[in-house]
Specification:
The protein has 487 residues and is of the alpha/beta class. It has 3 domains: 48 residues, Transcription Termination Factor Rho, Rna-binding Domain, Chain A, Domain 1 (Orthogonal Bundle); 79 residues, Beta Barrel (OB fold (Dihydrolipoamide Acetyltransferase, E2P)), CATH 2.40.50; 275 residues, 3-Layer(aba) Sandwich (Rossmann fold), CATH 3.40.50. The chain contains 21 helices and 17 strands. Strands 7, 10, 11, 12, 13, 14, 15, 16 and 17 form a 9-stranded mixed sheet that branches. Strand 14 and strand 15 form a beta hairpin. Helix 7 runs parallel beside helix 8, helix 14 packs across helix 15 and helix 15 packs across helix 17. The longest helix is centred in the middle third of the chain and has 20 residues. The radius of gyration is 25 Å and the shape is globular. It starts with a helix and ends with a helix.
C-alpha cells in the first residue's frame, strides 16, 4: 500500500509549485518509515499524547542551558534564539565548527546531535495537506511559505487522526536522514492545543449553528484611547461579528486596525488574534508586527496573486479548526478588496465579466472567507474585521465594495473630510453602525446612545466628530460620558 502511495505522489507532485517539487523524495523515504512506526511498530500516538504534555510545556519556557540538560528541544524555540545562544548550545552538545555555520545549518546540527543523545525534539506548525495525501507543517514565522524547516506528515497519520488543512499540530519529530530533506513527524502530541483523543469529538465547522453576536468585545482601554472609545459607542463589536471598515485612501484605517488589535489583546487575552495583511507594503507589515502582540501573517504587494490566495486560505482554515475546538478567534483583514483582486487574477476565466473587469466567479471564495465569521451556538466564535477600499479611482474596487456591502452585520465608514482636518478616528457617525446592537449593549446605555445620535443628526460629519471628541476628552471613561448625559 505504501508503494502505491509513493508512486502516486511522484506523479502528482510534478504539477505543484516549484517550492514543493523536492517533496517527492522525502515523501517516498519517510512514508515507509512513518507507516512502520505509526501503523505497525509502536502502539499508536495516544500514550505519548498523555505522557509527554508536561515535557513539551517545559520545553517552551525553559532557558537554553536547561534544554541541554533536560534533553528536550523545541524547534520553534530554537528558531527564535539568537546566533550566540545557538552556538553555545551547539558547543555544549559537542558540535564541531559551530561558529562557522549558518543559522539553518546550526539548527540542523543541534537537532542531529540531540537525536544522537537520545533526546526529544518537539515542533509545532499548521498543517497543509497536499493533493497527494501527505502534508507538511508550515511555520507562521515564514507566513506559511514552503521552506526547508517544514515537517513532513505521512498520509497514515492524516487518516488516523482525521487531520485537515489548518490543524495546528505539535509533537515529536526527527531530523532528516541521509538522502532526505525534511524533518518528519513521528509522534502526535496535541491537535489544536488539545489531546488527540479530544479532537475526534469535534463537529465540522459547516455543521455548526451560526447566531448573532451576543458577547461584546470591549475596545475601551485608557481614557486617551479615543478611537477605541468611539468604536464602543458608535459601532460595538461582539464575538462573531462580521465587520467591514469602509475606507478611502489615507483615512487612518491601518491605525484603526492596530487600535482594535491592541484593545482585543489587552481586554480579551482568551481570544486568538490573527492579523492578515494582503498585498500590503513591506514597511507596514513590519510596523504591524512591532505594534501588535498577536500573530501577523502577510503577503506583500511584490508577491504573486497565487501567494495572496494561499496565505488567506491557510489563515481561514486555521481559524475554522480552532473554532471547532470552541475557541474564540478574531481575524483582522487588510484588505478584502485586494484579496478579491488576487482571486480575480487566479480564477479560471468563466467568460462572464462584470463591470470593472471582474470575473463572475472571482468573488465566490472571498465571500466564503468573509462569510465564515459567525457566533457559534455550540461554543466558540469567529470574528472577521475587514477593510474595503473605496474612492481609489478604480472601477473594480467600487464593484468589489458593492458586492460586499450588506453582507456584514457591522459597518464602520471612514470619511476623508475628517482625516483632511486631522480628526481621528475619521468615522462617519451617521453612516456607521451595528446590526442587533441591543444584544451587545444594556438597555439604559443604548437609549442614551440613541439620544446622542438624534442630537448629532442635524450636524455635518465633521461637526459631529468634533462634538464627540470634545465631550469624550472631558471624561475618563464611556460610562462616565453616558452618565453625564441627560436622557
Amino acid at each position: 500500500m505504501a508503494t502505491k502511495t509513493r508512486r502516486k505522489s511522484t506523479k502528482t507532485t510534478k504539477v505543484e509549485e516549484n517550492g514543493l517539487k523536492t517533496d517527492v523524495k522525502q515523501a517516498e523515504v519517510n512514508e515507509t518509515e512513518v507507516n512502520k512506526e505509526v501503523d505497525t511498530g509502536q502502539d499508536d500516538q495516544k500514550p505519548l499524547a498523555e505522557t509527554n504534555g508536561s515535557e513539551r510545556k517545559e520545553s517552551t519556557v525553559v532557558e537554553a542551558p536547561a534544554k541541554v540538560e533536560g534533553q528536550v528541544f523545541n524547534l520553534a524555540v530554537l528558531k527564535e534564539m539568537s546566533i550566540s545562544d545557538l552556538t553555545n548550545i551547539a558547543k555544549e552538545l559537542g558540535v564541531e565548527g559551530a561558529t562557522g555555520l549558518r543559522r539553518q545549518e546550526l539548527i540542523f546540527k543541534i537537532l542531529a546531535a540531540q537525536t544522537e543523545k537520545s533526546g526529544l525534539i518537539f515542533a509545532e506548525g499548521v498543517l497543509e495537506v497536499l493533493p497527494d495525501g501527505f502534508g507538511f507543517l508550515r511555520a507562521p514565522e515564514y507566513n506559511y511559505l514552503p521552506g526547508p524547516d517544514d515537517i513532513y506528515v505521512s498520509p497514515s497519520q492524516i487518516r488516523k487522526f482525521d487531520l485537515r488543512t489548518g490543524d495546528t499540530i505539535s509533537g515529536q519529530i526527527r531530523p532528516p536522514k541521509e538522502g532526505e530533506r525534511y524533518f518528519a513527524l513521528i509522534k502526535v502530541e496535541a491537535i489544536n492545543f488539545e489531546a488527540p483523543e479530544h479532537a475526534k469529538n469535534k463537529v465540522f465547522f459547516d455543521n455548526l449553528t451560526p447566531l448573532y453576536p451576543c458577547e461584546r468585545l470591549k475596545m475601551e482601554t485608557t481614557p486617551d484611547n479615543i478611537s477605541a472609545r468611539v468604536i464602543d459607542l458608535i459601532t460595538p463589536i461582539g464575538k462573531g461579528q462580521r465587520a467591514l471598515i469602509v475606507a478611502p485612501p489615507r483615512t487612518g484605517k491601518t491605525m484603526l486596525l492596530q487600535t482594535i488589535a491592541n484593545s482585543i489583546t489587552q481586554n480579551h487575552p482568551e481570544v486568538v488574534l490573527i492579523v492578515l495583511l494582503i498585498d500590503e507594503r513591506p514597511e507596514e507589515v513590519t510596523d504591524m508586527q512591532r505594534s501588535v502582540k498577536g500573530e501577523v501573517i502577510s503577503s506583500t504587494f511584490d508577491e504573486p496573486a497565487t501567494r495572496h490566495v494561499q496565505v488567506a486560505e491557510m489563515v481561514i482554515e486555521k481559524a475554522k479548526r480552532l473554532v471547532e475546538h470552541k475557541r474564540d478567534v478574531v481575524i483582522l483583514l487588510d484588505s478584502i478588496t485586494r484579496l478579491a483582486r488576487a482571486h480575480n487574477a487566479v480564477v479560471p476565466p468563466s467568460g462572464k465579466i462584470l463591470s470593472g473587469g471582474i470575473d463572475a466567479n472571482a468573488l465566490q471564495r472571498p465571500k466564503r472567507f468573509f462569510g465564515a465569521a459567525r457566533n457559534i451556538e455550540e461554543g466558540g466564535s469567529l470574528t472577521i474585521i475587514a477593510t474595503a477600499l473605496i474612492d481609489t479611482g478604480s472601477r473594480m474596487d467600487d464593484v468589489i465594495f458593492e458586492e460586499f456591502k450588506g453582507t456584514g452585520n457591522c459597518e464602520i465608514h471612514l470619511d476623508r473630510r475628517l482625516s483632511d482636518k486631522r480628526l481621528f478616528p475619521a468615522i462617519d457617525i451617521q453612516r456607521s453602525g451595528t446590526r442587533k446592537e441591543e444584544l451587545l449593549i444594556n438597555k439604559e446605555d443604548l437609549n442614551k446612545i440613541w439620544v446622542m445620535r438624534r442630537v448629532l443628526n442635524p450636524l455635518s460629519p465633521v461637526e459631529q466628530m468634533e462634538v464627540v471628541l470634545e465631550r469624550l476628552s472631558k471624561t475618563k471613561s464611556n460610562a462616565e460620558f453616558l452618565a453625564s448625559m441627560q436622557s
